[in-house]
Specification:
heterodimer, A: about 60% strand, B: seven-stranded mixed beta sheet
Chain lengths: ~110, ~120
C-alpha cells in the first residue's frame, strides 16, 4: 500500500527566500506525481505533474524533481512571495488505476 | 474552459440524516474522482469512475456511502445515514482518462463541499 509523507509539516519564511518542500513515497512503482496548492477553504490547484519517466518539471518560479529509485520528490520555490502562502500537497499516481495517494501537506507562510 | 463544478459549497446536517453532493466534471473528461479531506489531512480517495464504470471503490464505506455516474458525465455522492466523523470537505476531480502523456491523468479539482455533521 502506497504511503506518502511530506516534510516539513509547516514552514514560515521571510519574503524573497528560496525554499524546498519534500515528499517521500514508499512504493516506487508510480505512474506520475502531481504537486497541488490549496488555499484555505478552497479546492486544489494543480501546479506541476511529473511523469514517471521524467526527472523534473518547471513552471515559472516552481521546479519539481522526481527520484523514483529513492522514493522522493522535491518542490523548489524561488524568490518566495506572500502570495505563495498556502498548503502544498504532493500526490502520487499509481501504476494501476491512475488514482492519486496524497501526502498530508506542507503549510507554507511567507512573511512580508 | 470551465472547471469542475460542485454543489452545494456548504452543508450542515444532524447525525443520522442523509445528504447528497453533486459534481460536474470538465467537459470531455472520462475519469471522475471523489475524495474526502478531513481537516489537517490530505485528501483520501473514496471512488474513481471511468466513464460510468467504477474503477476503484475500495475505500468507500459502502454501508453508508454510495455514488453514481449514470450517463458518464456528472456524478452524485450520497451519505445515509451520516455520522459525526463524516464531517470533512468532499472534493470532486476529473482527468481526461484517455490518450497519451500527462493530459491523460492530470487531475483538476473542484472547490469542494464542506460538510458539518452535528
Amino acid at each position: 500500500k502506497q504511503e506518502v509523507t511530506q516534510i516539513p509539516a509547516a514552514l514560515s519564511v521571510p519574503e524573497g527566500e528560496n525554499l524546498v518542500l519534500n515528499c517521500s513515497f514508499t512504493d516506487s512503482a508510480i505512474y506520475n506525481l502531481q504537486w497541488f496548492r490549496q488555499d484555505p477553504g478552497k479546492g486544489l490547484t494543480s501546479l506541476l505533474l511529473i511523469q514517471s519517466s521524467q526527472r523534473e518539471q518547471t513552471s515559472g518560479r516552481l521546479n519539481a524533481s522526481l527520484d523514483k529509485s529513492s522514493g522522493r520528490s522535491t518542490l523548489y520555490i524561488a524568490a518566495s512571495q506572500p502570495g505563495d502562502s498556502a498548503t502544498y500537497l504532493c500526490a502520487v499516481g499509481s501504476n494501476y488505476g491512475q488514482n492519486f495517494v496524497f501526502g498530508p501537506g506542507t503549510r507554507l507562510s511567507v512573511l512580508p | 474552459e470551465a472547471g469542475v463544478a460542485q454543489s452545494p459549497r456548504y452543508k450542515i446536517i444532524e447525525k443520522r440524516q442523509s445528504v447528497a453532493f453533486w459534481c460536474n466534471p470538465i467537459s470531455g473528461h472520462a475519469t471522475l474522482y471523489w475524495y474526502q479531506q478531513i481537516l489537517g489531512q490530505g485528501p483520501k480517495l473514496l471512488i474513481q469512475f471511468q466513464n460510468n464504470g467504477v474503477v476503484d471503490d475500495s475505500q468507500l464505506p459502502k454501508d453508508r456511502f454510495s455514488a453514481e455516474r449514470l450517463k458518464g458525465v456528472d456524478s452524485t455522492l450520497k451519505i445515509q445515514p451520516a455520522k459525526l466523523e463524516d464531517s470533512a470537505v468532499y472534493l470532486c476531480a476529473s482527468s481526461q482518462g484517455r490518450g497519451r502523456g500527462k493530459e491523460r491523468t492530470e487531475a483538476f479539482f473542484g472547490q469542494g463541499t464542506r460538510l458539518t455533521v452535528v
